[in-house]
Specification:
It is built from eleven helices and 13 strands. With about 350 residues, it is an alpha/beta fold. The longest helix is centred in the N-terminal third of the chain and has 21 residues. The N and C termini lie far apart (about 45 Å). The structure holds nicotinamide-adenine-dinucleotide and UDP-4-deoxy-4-formamido-beta-L-arabinopyranose.
């Protein structure tokens, strides 16, 4: 019998790719999303890729009563909780919105998991919990640092809420995945990232600049203490990241966890600079990008990349896609969007 997974935030960027991978691995998926940062048409993209129509409920995770109805309707084996607000800059302007959305949503999920005996939670955490680490790459043993934004702090606090809940309530267990920088799109170009307004993140800004939607990309700083002076990140293909969620659900539902709360770094292990991203994007897509070097962006950290050894060995998961194919997929997705807009 197939296992049922509740995917909150399932029409979002990472949630939609994870839904595809879950379906292709034989899981049944139910999506809950309030569409605050995604579109209903994403469901069509998922259907095109998988041939499956996923049950969708437009529900806000802050609404405990409506969420309870979903838990009553299905018998879930696991929850993957993506639903959250994620814009760092906006979180500085609207901290209460971020604390309310990200913390209340998680607490409602945990409450209902206990109420309906759903034991397994995969939580979307972030490399933001490490801040600028003293030693690179960062492993799971690297100490977390005080967050530099309300958004980052919600990930910190959510991890603590889960740790304390798992310690107190024997009926639940959890895996937190700390994502590095997810980029790219499904190879079919049927789903991808859908930024609203001016993108904050590098790759959508790059693809929108290449498409002529933005006149120019600003590269934030070339005076960092890195080989080419620009910042370094660990860019992970979103499909590879999605697969890590399937492996995490397999591990939990298969009774393979070693501790009742585990966390894993989900990255490639390779640090890539902003300028390398720009150059590789140009090369693999045979185009020229209009960009200029500007001053540093406030709050940016100089360099961070993952030591993914623990995830590789313990989860049996490894990032497989190259930066080149990932950047090709990002451009194919932008072109798909542009065709839709015409
Ligand atoms: P996204 O905005 O594309 O997806 C989040 C989805 O959650 C959206 O569809 C949004 O409509 C929905 N949502 C938000 N609040 C909700 C609520 N209260 N109730 C129901 N639905 C709600 O973002 P994403 O990039 O797919 O990120 C997914 C998760 O991964 C988030 O928790 C994010 O913090 C985390 N994360 C993202 C990144 C990244 O760079 N994209 C990195 C690390 C961690
Ligand atoms: C990547 C690099 C920029 C835009 C953010 C969050 C983090 C996590 C992932 C969720 C940086 C440079 C960017 C541009 C540029 N999210 N850049 N010009 O800052 O690593 O992380 O998303 O948890 O919490 O902080 O990602 O894509 O914004 O930037 O030069 O127009 O690209 O300086 O070095 P970041 P990003």
């Amino acid at each position: 019998m197939s296992k049922y997974v509740l995917v909150t935030g399932g029409t979002g960027y990472i949630g939609s790719h994870t839904t595809v991978e879950l379906l292709e691995s034989g899981y049944e998926v139910v999506i809950v999303d309030n569409l605050s940062n995604s579109e209903r048409f994403v469901l069509k993209g998922i259907q095109k890729i998988t041939g499956r129509k996923v049950p969708f409920h437009k529900v806000d995770c802050r609404d405990l009563a409506r969420l309870r109805r979903i838990f009553r309707q299905y018998k879930f084996d696991a929850v993957i909780h993506f639903a959250a607000s994620k814009a760092v800059g906006e979180s500085v302007e609207k901290p209460l919105l971020y604390y309310r959305n990200n913390l209340d949503s998680l607490m409602n999920i945990l409450t209902l998991m206990r109420e309906f005996q759903v034991p397994n939670l995969v939580f979307s955490s972030s490399c933001t919990v490490y801040g600028q680490a003293e030693k690179l790459p960062v492993s799971e043993q690297t100490p977390r640092r005080e967050a530099t934004s309300p958004y980052g702090n919600t990930k910190h606090i959510c991890e603590d809420i889960i740790r304390d809940s798992v310690a107190a309530y024997p009926e639940i267990r959890s895996i937190a995945l700390r994502y590095f920088n997810p980029i790219g799109a499904h190879p079919s170009a049927e789903i991808g990232e859908l930024p609203r307004g001016v993108p904050n993140n590098l790759i959508p800004f790059v693809t929108q600049t290449a498409a002529g939607i933005r006149p120019m990309l600003s590269v934030f700083g070339d005076d960092y203490n890195t080989p080419d002076g620009s910042c370094i990140r660990d860019y992970i293909n979103v499909v590879d990241l999605a697969k890590a969620h399937v492996v995490a659900v397999d591990r939990m539902t298969g009774g393979k966890m070693k501790q009742r709360f585990e966390f894993f770094n989900v990255g490639t292990g390779r640090g890539v600079s902003t300028l390398e991203v720009v150059k590789t994007f140009e090369q693999v897509n045979h185009l020229k990008l209009n960009y200029k070097i500007v001053g540093r962006r406030a709050g940016d950290i100089e360099a961070v990349w993952a030591d993914p050894t623990y995830a590789n060995e313990e989860l049996g998961w490894k990032a497989e896609k190259t930066l080149e194919e990932t950047l090709r997929s990002a451009w194919a997705w932008q072109q798909h969007l542009d065709r839709q807009a015409k």
